[in-house]
């Protein structure tokens, strides 16, 4: 049985295609008013439905192209959609699915941009019919379900019934799932009662589908009765597929009931109908071949006409430009000629010299820029590739460190964690330095942060190197400094980690102090002085001239050697923050690195309420369920362990395609999604999730650096993000924010 048509009946009230060989008495010129053009379009549309009934598809394409161009001209989106729909359906009936898909997709894009639910639904039903031709039944059902969802919001009776019956027939006749079909048959009947439409009757469809369902369930008496009712309603259309299908079902029901005499009589009628159908199909096939030939001629005529108009317009514009350019050029040539008469020799020599120098400069500049681009891309890629395994190492080492059964290995695990953290800081340093040197804009964040917590985190991250050299690290903050400030805490942390790390590295059995003093305070901002003091080996005057340069601390002995990037990055980051690093030091007496920084005072509205302690009762997360989507199994495991520590149920998916299926069948409160995945990345997957679930919270996880990650997700319906590797507290704060 043929599935229910969508766009053709939908546009019946206003659409028509004029026969190809009939001349229209109405002409449209450049002087025609909008009202005249609309009247012309409506006349074409009123004739179109008859031509579609006659299967005159070449005429459909020709006159729809006329309507399409005129509708574009006057900005009439509805009639533009009608024209595209008729062209798409004409190609669909001639089995040219590629061209049909193009015009229907153009309608979908236009309707979505306008947020026009009516056109979106109509176009989606057209697209579903293409999937039907391709036997892609799951896509056919999915699109019709999307139509039903939108139609319910707008109480669109026709679309509710049409798509419900389409899905019912797919389940019943193609996928052999009668119980799934029954739900949609009943829904269509409810919609028909709730929103009656006197211009359209669906009784034949209901009787036919009820009969097929009854037959599938073995209720042959009920099937016979409903097939007979469907035949009565469809008998006026002798060649319809619906009538053939109804007679075939009626015959089968009679045979199952043992009514062989009646079945034989039904068979004779069916045989006659089938012969007529075969003749009709042969005629339609020949007509389709003729239409394909005619339609190619029509398309060529349209293209030739458009090309001709384009060439004429382009020539006119070109001639105008050439005329102006010729006059200007003539004046310039005269001036150049006079100039060369007086200073030809001198100018020629100078120009040749400048030309050579300019070519050398451009060549060197191009090579330099290309090298910079390659370097930037390489370092960005390698930093991401390093962050991903580091997330797994840091996360697993944290988890193992907390395992009481591994208490005898705490020293080794602490070494492992420090090594991973050291590598992470090094990656961040290289990435920051590369951004600054490549001329990329370093955007300073303005977020509330707790200064005391920031310094304590630094202390914890440097704990291993502090113990290694048997040092003591103390922190002292001026009591007049507000608890919460506004600024770029990431870059401030990066500066202090480099300074404190160097101090710990060049000091043995000593003390390192991080001091923060208030210098100046106004209503909305304050100026602070940060100092990192040590009583280590100190720095000579000669070395002080070199250490702030790139690779500066490589002048030290191998005992203390590092990457040589730390102080150079500190210098450049402070410059971006309108500050500079200062140093006081003597050999054997230690060093004092200090700088001043202007920060804002956080308003009460900007200060978020403090997050609960990590030891908060897990009952706040009772019954919560999270889906983790990550193609890296180690990272999956780390994230899962973090989450399950708080009594939350966690499930995992290896890619976004698998996750989409899980989200359609299971209920989750929150999704943690990796950004870079095969098949579909996190941004594409998020958009697809939002097409059927607007409520679920989505948090992007990525090894991408924080500011770059924020820029990437901008414009997507994503609730939050977290840059890997992250701190347990940051993850916990997000869980409290979105699940409590």
Automatic annotation (TrEMBL):
EC number: 2.7.13.3
Keyword Heme: no
InterPro entries in the cross-refs: CheY-like_superfamily, HATPase_C_sf, HATPase_dom, His_kinase_dom, HisK_dim/P_dom, HisK_dim/P_sf, Sig_transdc_His_kin-like_C, Sig_transdc_resp-reg_receiver
CDD domains on file: HisKA, REC_hyHK_CKI1_RcsC-like
Domain Histidine kinase residue range list: 381-601
Residues covered by the Response regulatory domain: 625-739
UniProt keyword terms in alphabetical order: Coiled coil, Membrane, Phosphoprotein, TPR repeat, Transmembrane, Transmembrane helix, Two-component regulatory system
Protein name, per record: histidine kinase
Residue stretches of each TPR repeat: 204-237
Source superkingdom: Bacteria
Coiled coil: 288-317, 347-374
Enzyme class (EC, first level): transferase
SUPFAM superfamilies xrefs: ATPase domain of HSP90 chaperone/DNA topoisomerase II/histidine kinase (SSF55874), CheY-like (SSF52172), Homodimeric domain of signal transducing histidine kinase (SSF47384), TPR-like (SSF48452)
Source organism: Zunongwangia pacifica
